[in-house]
Write a structure and sequence with these properties.
Strand order of the largest sheet: 1-3-4-5-2
Number of strands: 5
Shape: elongated
Structural class: alpha+beta
Distance between the termini: 21 Å
């Protein structure tokens, strides 16, 4: 039965359209938000709490790239195993709500569609919805990637 197979050990055939998984969580820490943004996204509403208070956000918010990096970490920790062979791209990336210090973000993944590769019989494609959801139930980042997943028939 599929539900008995740990996510990181699943092959393409072990997933079904509509499968949904709620995985790990992370708490946003102001110092980490500022450190990330200082290095990679130094806009005033990400690095300066006083300046951020004067923006449309009314206070410091995390860089969207920071939330994306945290989403990737949670996915790698709890979802992506050796049968994941990378990604073909993403059809959507959105940040519907700002992320603030103290927010608790939880990863939810849902399988949207599946297809077998026409050119590589050892591969299948999973189109997923990856969302980080805050403690209030708001989606703060949504990514729809297409993942390359090894198929059982040709696995060693």
């Amino acid at each position: 039965m599929t539900s008995d197979i740990p996510l990181k050990d699943r092959y393409y055939e072990d997933f079904s359209v509509g499968d949904s998984f709620t995985l790990g969580s992370v708490e946003m820490v102001e110092e980490e938000m500022i450190a990330f943004a200082t290095q990679f996204d130094p806009q005033r509403f990400h690095v300066d709490p006083e300046a951020a208070a004067q923006t449309i956000y009314g206070g410091l918010i995390a860089s969207g790239w920071h939330t994306g990096s945290l989403m990737m970490r949670l996915s790698a920790d709890d979802f992506l195993g050796d049968n994941c062979l990378g990604a073909a791209g993403a059809s959507e990336l959105s940040w519907p709500a700002p992320v603030r210090a103290g927010d608790i973000l939880t990863l939810r993944i849902e399988v949207l569609s599946m297809r077998e590769s026409n050119s590589r019989p050892n591969l299948g494609f999973l189109e997923l919805t990856n969302e980080l959801i805050n403690q209030n139930g708001e989606v703060v980042i949504r990514v729809v990637p297409t993942m390359l997943i090894a198929r059982k028939q040709v696995a060693d």
